[in-house]
Amino acid sequence: MVPPIDATAASAATTIAPARTVRDVSSRQPARWQNARVIDIIEETPDAVTLRLRLVDSADFLPGQYYNVRLTVAGRTGPIQRAYSVASSPVPETSTIDIGVREVPGGLISPQLVRGLSVGDQIQVRGPVGRFTWTMEDGGPVLLVGAGSGVVPLMSMVRYAVAADLDIPMRLVCSSSSFDSAFYHRDLANLAEQHSWLEVVHTLTRDSSDVRAAHHRRIDHRMIVEAVAGQLPRRAYICGPPAMVEDVQGWLGELGVDPHWVRIEKYD
Ligand SMILES: Cc1cc2nc3c(=O)[nH]c(=O)nc-3n(C[C@H](O)[C@H](O)[C@H](O)COP(=O)(O)OP(=O)(O)OC[C@H]3O[C@@H](n4cnc5c(N)ncnc54)[C@H](O)[C@@H]3O)c2cc1C
Hints:
Elements: H1 7-12, H2 22-26, E1 34-45, E2 48-55, E3 66-71, E4 80-85, E5 96-102, H3 110-115, E6 122-129, E7 142-147, H4 151-163, E8 170-176, H5 185-194, E9 198-204, H6 221-228, E10 235-240, H7 242-254, E11 262-266
Bound molecules: flavin-adenine dinucleotide (FAD).
């Protein structure tokens, strides 16, 4: 296992790709299934990994998009597919992508991805897909709200902003059951220390004592009021369980954030 990508090092070596628009990327032909080789497996939490995949046909993607992954499952006819968001930045290059996967107990695909793969294995992927995207052209201030594995596509946005050397205010609210189960909390702490435009706020739903978190409850109305205080976002991205996504979307509308610029991704 190797440590997660050092986004700061990536930033230093980066040649910024021309900004791509959603229309540029989404107007491409639908992608085909392709083999991707697992070139690294990074343990993020006790039940979640980053799978670093090398693609044969690399494709431009936008921060926030996802790939479909398909696997054969014993006892099932035909492969089963699931969506997994890209956690890495499309800058400086897209031939290698990181996907973040949390094991859902009893699930058909996620346990195989988290515990059943080794470096060198190949899996089939198709993508990139999705309109839950943010690039420098969209501007900010940006509010990112994620719960559980919903932080994965938001991490791609943060890493892209670092790699592209942007200076757009970004506030990320992450909800996890505990710090141990919080995706990317070490990377995020390092990035927030290095970049004054990034603020990370953690809330823990099942640990009432960890002082590293600002809050110890589920994301609620009061938390969102505080998250927009002093900096009404012009762009907001919410990702995670459908109920949380819908609640936060409604509260942001009430607080005056333009509904057109409140983008959502529900992990059903
Ligand atoms: C756009 C999008 C992006 C996503 N990105 C990510 C990501 O970045 N990271 C991530 O971890 N996840 C992500 N997800 C969720 C992911 O796609 C899967 O839904 C998740 O990994 C669970 O898949 P699974 O096959 O393991 O579980 P499933 O087989 O779908 O099972 C889910 C649950 O249902 C239960 N279940 C299944 N069948 C039955 C049954 N017959 N009766 C009762 N219970 C049953 C299982 O026990 C399990 O608890 C994303 C989803 C979407 C839509």
